[in-house]
Amino acid sequence: MTVRTTPAVARSRADLAGLQVGGPVVFVPTMGALHEGHARLLQMARERAGTEGTVVLSIFVNPLQFGPDEDLDRYPRTFEGDLEIAATEGVDVVFAPTVVEMYPDGVPHEGVVSEAVTVQPGPLADVLEGASRPGHFRGVLTVVAKLFGLVRPDVAIFGEKDYQQLALIRRMASDLCLGIEVVGVATDRETDGLARSSRNRYLDDEQRQQAATLSRALRAAQDRAAHGVPAARWAAMKVLRAEPGIELDYLALTTTGLGELPDYPEPGSEGRVLVAARVGTTRLIDNLPLSF
Questions:
Q1: Which among 35, 38, 109, 136 is annotated as catalytic?
Q2: Is 136 among the residues known to form the active site?
């Protein structure tokens, strides 16, 4: 049966602090433009919170994680539709702060002198997405740390589509002793395998079909993983090269912690295959687990 509540909407720190919440507090941070994948995260949150706990959803498009040539201004904002999904999935509190509320002294952009304290994400932030988007994970971890401090959750739930982000948030929660359980949820997909993403709405019909190539390439790597890393990589690249509409950024086969894999891992070991590419002007990412 569909659960439907009317979530309280907090626009400021004071609004949030004034709400009465019961534990456990389960938190789903998002940038809005919610889709079925987000709904799955909220369903998981409602299950973890139970009838006595509180589900908090945040909606905040974080300028600190966008580079100067990225899509901050055109990132979709669909607040009323997001509230409908939040109500359907049993969210108790929606925290939707302004930029000024989150960064009262201004957004501390890369290369600009600022007295603001930000989170240094370490060397894992310099590879894969970090190599393509310098400063991105500094922005992600800084805003997540701020949201953790404001919401004070017991559990935080994230999708595995942004796998590197999930790994870094887990590392931050552990290294900074935040006492928050960080839960990853498998990527929700369209019927053709395309990972659900707020950016999919930028794709036209032809690009939408081209984008499904990414998940086919990842599945090809999965199917050949038993034969070693070179075979899995070759299988994925064969699929990607067959689609001229794909502008590949990277294809990486790594350990589950995003470390380097030997060509022939120990039998029974696990890994990850990650891809990033542009389809038209839209940059998409995806990943799948590997079993060797």
A1: 38
A2: no
State how far the Cα of 140 lies from the Cα of 117, in Å rounded to an integer: 14
- In the chain, what are the domains? 8-185 (3.40.50.620), 198-291 (3.30.1300.10)
Residue 274 dihedral angles phi and psi, to the nearest 5°: -125, 145
pLDDT tens, the chain, 292 aa long: 455 678 999 999 999 999 988 889 999 999 999 999 999 999 999 999 999 999 999 999 999 999 887 878 888 899 999 999 999 999 999 999 999 999 998 998 755 556 789 999 999 999 999 999 999 999 999 999 999 999 999 999 999 999 999 999 999 999 999 999 999 999 999 999 999 999 999 999 999 999 999 999 999 999 999 999 999 999 999 999 999 999 999 999 999 999 999 999 999 999 999 999 999 999 999 999 999 9
What's the burial of 151, exposed, middle or buried (CB within 10 Å: 0-12/13-18/19+)? buried
Which of 196, 156, 162 has its CA nearest to residue 180? 156
Strands (DSSP E) along 41-160, which ranges?
A: 54-59, 93-95, 155-159
